[in-house]
Fold this protein.
Amino acid sequence: MKLNKETAELALKEASKTNPGAWISHSHYVAKACKYIASRCNHLSAEQAYLLGLIHDIGRYAGVSSEKHLIDGYRYCMERGWEKAAQICISHAFMIQDINTSIGTFDVSEEDYLFMKQFIENAVYDDYDRLVQLCDALALPTGFCLLEKRFVDVTIRYGFHPSTIDRWKKILDIKSYFEKEIGCSIYALLPGVMENSFC
């Protein structure tokens, strides 16, 4: 089964029935942010970026969970032959390639934990991985926002962890990288970002 706009949107629609929630709207905004930024990068496909952003949290179809949604998403995509999407289902949560930098709870088996640990260490990230990591931090369920607002939103929900600041720094580095690529502020490409950030 090929990953395209139809299959990706159908997957998210079906997932919204098994586990409805704000993550669905969040995924749509992540996808749009990925598309807007990728459209200004000569080496990226805006369509591919949109699909990978849309599917990054698809593991939440299986129900409310913490880090389990990462491996659930990986398996969901691998079963359909969506290898890059499968990687991003895990990599989007690890801008630093170290499982110990997780801010969630590993509600998985020991076998799954060890698989994820090795996968994260050995994954070769490209600009699609980095773009989804960035856009995940630019999207609230209500729309686009400043990174700092999302940082606070996530920290309120998950708590402050030893790697929190390092994770923020990494996302800010990725932001700077893409801004050099596109030649302007990423915020210039995100409709309503200021209004949504200060509402």
The mean pLDDT is 96. Residues 164-182 form the longest helix (19 residues). The chain has ten helices and two strands. The beta strands are 139-140, 143-144.
